[in-house]
Amino acid sequence: MRLEYFQMVDKVLALDLEARTLRTANIVPDKSPIFEGHFPGHPLLPGVLLFEIMAQSCGMLLLRLHNYDRMAFLASVDKGKLRTFVTPGQVIEVFAEMVHDGSGFARLKAEGRVEGKLVCNAEVTLKTMPFPAPELRGYLLETAERIGMPMGTPAELGSSAPASAGNLTHV
Amino acid sequence: MSSTFETVANIIAETCDIPRENITPESHAIDDLGIDSLDFLDIAFAIDKAFGIKLPLESWTQEVNEGKATTEQYFVLKNLCARIDELIAAKSA
Questions:
Q1: Whole-model pTM?
Q2: Where is the Carrier domain (chain B) (predicted)?
Q3: N or C end of chain A: which has fewer CB within 10 A?
């Protein structure tokens, strides 16, 4: 996770194109200027970034389902819950699930867990539109490669495509 | 159309916290009810789920922006409900 660049997703753990779900690993860095202010002597990942982490996993799933032909932008977060503190060095596993893929928007559910314990969850609405700049699509494709997004067809991937058996050794 | 309208009106009332009695078939979702594009996403989501359809919001918006259609054609509720009925009929055809 590179907080200052809003690079939240470190690794795809599992992609299921048929179930339209994605599981990602998001590693909170040990150090960041953010922790100097949030908070002195008691570093916590800001709650708003937990929403961003969930939104990015939702976006990664949506882009993959649309084969990167459209960009997704965060439109709303409903029923958002921040259940416990998240601290430097922890690994947040986010599970994102498509609820409804509409015309120009999508509704997804997401939840984040640390060592199996639920730390955050929300319903996320993303607006979709053609990429407003070609370099943005290139950046997202580079990101997909960086995080190990499986890029085959459903038939090639099977019903569930592990990125690498769920371990974090390649992060 | 009447049952479609009842469903849509109830969705709008619940989603946007608009008194149900203020919502009529003649209401324009944007001009009369003050529904903005973000709220309309929630409405579209609920309509899609309720009727098992996919409102073609993007193409409607494009048609309006290009002057090929008016907002009344899609966002006056009786017209919206007629479109929904068409989509339901097309789905079951």
A1: 0.89
A2: 2-88
A3: C
CA distance B81 to chain A (A): 17
Q: Is B63 on the interface with A (CB under 8 A)?
A: no
Query: Residues A12-56: pLDDT tens digits?
Result: 999 999 999 999 999 999 999 999 999 999 999 999 999 999 999
Placement of tokens 């048929």 in the chain: A18
Top CATH class of B2-92 equals mainly alpha
| Topology, domain A3-148 | Thiol Ester Dehydrase; Chain A (3.10.129)
From A166, A161, A165, A150, select the one nearest A16 (Cα to Cα): A161
Mutate to test the interface with B, among A73, A76, A99, A105 (most CBs of B within 10 A): A105
**Interface of chain A toward chain B, CB-CB under 8 angstroms:** 75-76, 100, 102-105, 107, 125, 127
Sorted by where each begins, the domain ranges of chain A are: 3-148
ipTM, two decimals, is 0.86
CB contact under 8 Å between B44 and A103, yes or no, is yes
